[in-house]
Write a structure and sequence with these properties.
Growth Hormone, Chain: A, 23 helices, MHS family MFS transporter, Sugar_transporter_CS, MFS, transmembrane, cell membrane
């Protein structure tokens, strides 16, 4: 049998925690860049563009997203052919190397235009890593889990995003508190990037102990694995890729208001809030996001992945404009309140994702399918979300125009949920081959 339900509970938890540890480090690395975009890079690397320096700086976040599908396709192909475990280690090392090197790049005042070019190149490497990382972490956790608890265990790699955000904001808040503005711009911002060396070393040790997925091992032993998983994916399952991408785009655009640094930059540059203060506010929200993500995963085992998604999207829609109204007060307490409720909807549309995306695809193309849905959704939703938000706010003179944009994206995600089938109780091994796509389609025609 392909299901690991008879494996000891300790093994399930060990795998889930290893997946969470790795994604936390990955997202810490990824978010540190995004957070420094509006606080540092616009002043040190893109200052020659005048009033457009902040928008151009945010655009570099989006550029890396276009390389996520490349990373997802490469890691997905190798992950479906060689296994999930090897890709977990490779993507972690790539992300850590790129992040550490960012902390060593000279500024534009030192080496001219070469500085932003190097910075963007290293951000692209981060994008390649992020594109392949999530699929492996999600699958290794879900494919080890018992059928009735895939939502719970699949939520662990999802926790890496709020934990990474919490860690990134915490380290930056500490550095801004311990240094003057001049010191922070001179060298303080580099410390969080250089810390990645130690974090990646710890993650490498943890992930080396993870065994290969039992579902994937059975597939290899049966000889049914695909030699061309990407071709099989797009031949038989392309509607699933599109559906999954639109679901994640609706979550990702909303999430990137904080993870992409827009809220932080808007608060500092327009509301004149102290950087340390707003970073702490986002840290508090990250704890709520963390909790609601875990709740979303657990709840999805009880009432279904789709129902939890729908609840989360409705909360996002209902709270969008109240959130921006509270943010505009520049009152710390009200901003925290706004971010907390905002993060609840975000978590409920993020917690069930690993389980849902894993259940959407047959084992033979599961890594490729889940990773590409995630990566393409990130391009559609998060790639230029901070830049779009900044451009909208600047051109209209009101932050509520950002709310209109995010409302539209969320509506698309909510609509997609009504075309997705619930498969929470279907054993993953029952979808081990890629030739039965008609019976297994998850997105209805």
């Amino acid at each position: 049998m392909s299901q690991p339900s008879t494996a000891p509970g300790r093994q399930h938890r060990t795998v889930a925690l290893a997946a969470m540890a790795g994604t936390t480090i990955e997202w810490y690395d990824f978010f540190i860049y995004a957070l420094c975009t509006g606080l540092v890079f616009n002043q040190l690397f893109f200052q020659g563009f005048g009033e457009d320096s902040l928008i151009i700086s945010f655009a570099t976040i989006g550029i890396s997203f276009f390389f996520r599908p490349v990373g997802a396709a490469l890691a997905g192909h190798l992950g479906d052919r060689l296994g999930r475990r090897a890709m977990l280690i490779a993507t972690l090392v790539l992300m850590g190397a790129a992040t550490t090197l960012i902390g060593l790049v000279p500024t534009r005042d030192s080496i001219g235009m070469t500085a932003p070019i190097i910075l963007v190149f290293l951000r692209i490497l981060q994008g390649l890593s992020a594109g392949g990382e999530w699929g492996g972490a999600a699958l290794i956790a879900v494919e080890h889990a018992p059928t009735g608890r895939r939502g719970r265990f699949g939520a662990f790699p999802q926790l890496g995003a709020p934990l990474g955000l919490l860690l990134a904001n915490g380290v930056l808040a500490l550095m801004t508190a311990l240094t003057t503005d001049e010191q922070f711009l001179a060298w303080g911002w580099r410390i969080p990037f250089l810390l990645s060396v130690g974090l990646v070393a710890a993650g490498f040790i943890i992930r080396r102990k993870v065994e290969e997925s039992p579902v994937y091992r059975e597939l290899k032993e049966s000889g049914n694995h695909s030699r061309t998983p990407l071709a099989a994916l797009f031949k038989h399952h392309w509607p699933l890729v599109v559906g999954g991408a639109l679901l994640f785009a609706a979550n990702n655009a909303v999430g990137y208001m904080t993870t992409g640094g827009y809220v932080q930059a808007y608060s500092v540059n327009h509301l004149k809030i102290n950087p340390t203060t707003i970073l702490i506010c986002v840290m508090i929200a990250a704890v709520t996001w963390l909790t609601s993500t875990m709740v979303g995963g657990i709840l999805s085992d009880k009432i279904g992945r789709i129902r939890v998604y729908q609840i989360g999207f409705v909360i996002q829609l209902a709270w969008m404009f109240p959130f921006f109204a509270l943010l505009n007060t520049a009152n710390t307490g009200l901003i925290v309140l706004g971010l907390i409720v905002y993060s609840i909807g975000l978590g409920l549309t993020y917690g069930p994702q690993a389980a849902l995306f894993s259940e959407m695809y047959p084992t033979a193309v599961r890594y490729s399918g889940a990773a590409l849905s995630y990566a393409i959704g990130a391009v559609l939703g998060g790639a230029f979300a901070p830049m779009i938000a900044e451009a909208l706010q600047t051109s209209t003179g009101t932050v509520y125009s950002v709310g209109v944009y995010l409302t539209g994206v969320t509506v698309v995600g909510l609509v997609v949920t009504f075309f997705v089938k619930e498969r929470k109780d279907v054993p993953l091994g029952d979808t081990a081959t890629d030739g039965q796509h008609d019976e297994q389609a998850t997105v209805t025609a």
